Amino acid sequence: MAVAVGRPSNEELRNLSLSGHVGFDSLPDQLVNKSTSQGFCFNILCVGETGIGKSTLMDTLFNTKFESDPATHNEPGVRLKARSYELQESNVRLKLTIVDTVGFGDQINKDDSYKPIVEYIDAQFEAYLQEELKIKRSLFNYHDTRIHACLYFIAPTGHSLKSLDLVTMKKLDSKVNIIPIIAKADTIAKNELHKFKSKIMSELVSNGVQIYQFPTDEETVAEINATMSVHLPFAVVGSTEEVKIGNKMAKARQYPWGVVQVENENHCDFVKLREMLIRVNMEDLREQTHTRHYELYRRCKLEEMGFKDTDPDSKPFSLQETYEAKRNEFLGELQKKEEEMRQMFVMRVKEKEAELKEAEKELHEKFDLLKRTHQEEKKKVEDKKKELEEEL
Amino acid sequence: MDPLRQSPSPCSSRPSSPKTPPCEMLGYVGIEAVLDQLKIKAMKMGFEFNIMVVGQSGLGKSTMLNTLFKSKVWKCTLPGLAMPTPQTLQLKSVTHVIEEKGVKLKLTVTDTPGFGDQINNDKCWNPILGYINEQYERYLQEEILITRQRHIPDTRVHCCVYFVPPTGHCLRPLDIEFLQRLCRTVNVVPVIARADSLTLEEREAFRRRIQHNLRTHCIEVYPQKCFDEDINDRILNSKIRDRIPFAVVGADRQHLVNGRCVLGRKTKWGIIEVENMEHCEFPLLRDLLIRSHLQDLKDITHNVHYENYRVCRLNESHVLPHGPCWVNLAPTPPGPSVAPGPSKACRQAREDSDDNEDDY
């Protein structure tokens, strides 16, 4: 039976006018409902020296106390500590993972400081890639651990970026969305701050560091993103303590010479950071991570494994090999499961047998005991009978 | 339960694992703004929906599409026009972009004129299965590429509406064969076509008999019972499952009834209003397909049917993408034989799970 399929080319896409209400304007709501019940994942990486205020800032940003002890300065190397939390606001469930760089900037020789960070980020991409390449995969309930935003904490020296900062940011800019922030900004005076910011931005540009660009192609957010970008890097102050200001309690840091209010835009850029990071661009950060950084990693990794899209000779073999390997892995797993189940079954049977043998032994013993008692009784009765007979 | 039949939609309510303690927030942070961000992104990207209608000629498929989307999706072939019945089964696709209140929808409808019209209808489902699998293959090839597009164009069939002729008796062998093969590969929604030839009692009886037929032959139509997420879904979907197949009437002409302009069919004995629940169940079909379950249809197609296809395909280690213009891979047998792979496994698993369900 012949099949003729008429496929339209793209030019034939017609715009059709509707003569009544069809009802698919509820589509965005349907989509949002699905995402809400699924929950969201957001992973933040905080890179900065020990004691620069990373944990305090996270506590302030998310208005909660993530339990953590301050790190020591004696770490032999940089290691990454990841902790996950579940936050809920109205009907939105957020699975937040905060990754801390413990021991960053503490060593005498900081040559290799960036390596554990890059390895961690790559490891998350690798985990996702492995899941995606699996034969039987479950991407829809995969817990996404890829880093969506990297907050780089710059020390408030007031001069310029440290060379460690430049080197680290250069290594990270193609792997993650970098948002540079100036930490402990209450130690810098206002006029110094302005010069400091311009110096940092010009250094980033001249060194070719690609930081995260707030998206300006969407009319709804273009304006706010554009105005906020001017204030990069954000000078933030973090605090979880509340101080009475006027007749309200507000998060602030109290000094003998005054009170630095965290949420006062004249005092620091904390509100701007919260707006940009959470309220306006969270989804864009996640999308950039998936469509740009992850795709780049995937492309590099697959090319490394020897695949090419356009060369017909090498690709069939290598991709076939990979999928052969995956298939064998899959079959191997199935076999392993089968073995496990069989072994468990055999073990259970053995256990049951042993139990039954025990019970049988007990029964035998009981039987013997009863037999003996019975015999004794019988003997007693016979003796008594003899006695009685003798008496008679 | 066989992993192939796992709950597909991403709505699995994940309990918080011991490693992720729930945290109390002492004030408003603004996390819920992410919902608006999602909405904006979705509206900008637009949506896609691919629907296929299958049934014999003259059952009102094209009219139904026009009624569903309130526009001239297809030019209807009126009887009497010189339009010869196609000698072979043809699949015709047309794509439109429709917009409503700022939401853009790229709608692709596939019609199957010639289905079931021949004298010998043996294996008439093969071209349809082949087409559906071809779309899955296309998507798979795009997904395997090294340099992928940002947004892979989705041409996979999300929903197949099957038109059952209103005989009033029960499902015919052709219907049963087709539904059995297709419900493993795509979401199938059966409807009773031209329901204005049946009275309300006849409709109910016909519906019960069809439901009985579906159960006897283990045909799982959309919404599938095994994909219900939680108790709310189950309640909602049970109500829908009770009314499947919907008895529908299609019309694209407007008439004046009691001063209102309604879509309907005018006959000598009255005007059948399409959107009146007392006359026919078209509103139920429209609500199911468009207003409430459209996203769910797409999710099940992506997470279940496409994944099943992918597992089968990759297990046959003949995955040889030869570059951007994909080549028809000879070792792969045509459509239907790919389907029985998961069908058999699924059928077995479903029988097991049916037993399990009975135990519960």
Task: State the main characteristics.
heterodimer; A: 392 residues; alpha/beta; Rossmann fold; 2 domains; 3-stranded antiparallel sheet; 11 strands; 48% helix; 17% strand; disordered N terminus; B: 360 residues; disordered C terminus
Number of DSSP helical runs of chain A: 9
CATH architecture of the domain at 35-77 and 84-250 and 290-318 in chain B: 3-Layer(aba) Sandwich
Structural class of chain A: alpha/beta
Computed over alpha carbons, the radius of gyration of chain A is 35 Å
Tell me the total number of β-strands of chain B.
9
What is the number of beta strands of chain A? Answer: 11
Distance between the termini of chain B: 14 Å
Q: CATH superfamily name of the domain at 35-77 and 84-250 and 290-318 in chain B?
A: P-loop containing nucleotide triphosphate hydrolases
Encode the helix/strand succession of chain B as letters. HEHEEHEHEHHEEEEHHH
Outline of chain A, from the CA principal axes?
Answer: elongated
Structural class of chain B: alpha/beta
Identify the overall geometry of chain B.
globular
CATH class of the domain at 35-77 and 84-250 and 290-318 in chain B: Alpha Beta
How many helices of chain B?
9
Neighbour order of strands in the largest sheet of chain A: 4-5-3-6-7-8
Strand content of chain B: 15-25%
Furnish the topology, listing elements before pairings.
The complex is a heterodimer of chains A (392) and B (360).
Chain A: E1 4-6, E2 14-16, H1 27-38, E3 40-47, H2 54-61, E4 79-89, E5 92-102, H3 114-133, E6 149-154, H4 163-172, E7 178-182, H5 190-206, H6 219-229, E8 234-235, E9 242-245, E10 248-255, E11 258-261, H7 270-280, H8 282-304, H9 314-391
Parallel strand pairs in A: 3-5, 3-6, 6-7, 7-8
Antiparallel strand pairs in A: 4-5, 9-10, 10-11
Helix pairs in contact in A: 7-8
Chain B: H1 33-45, E1 47-54, H2 61-68, E2 90-100, E3 103-111, H3 126-144, E4 159-164, H4 173-182, E5 188-192, H5 200-216, H6 231-243, E6 246-247, E7 254-257, E8 260-267, E9 270-273, H7 282-292, H8 294-315, H9 340-359
Parallel strand pairs in B: 1-3, 1-4, 4-5, 5-6
Antiparallel strand pairs in B: 2-3, 7-8, 8-9
Helix pairs in contact in B: 7-8
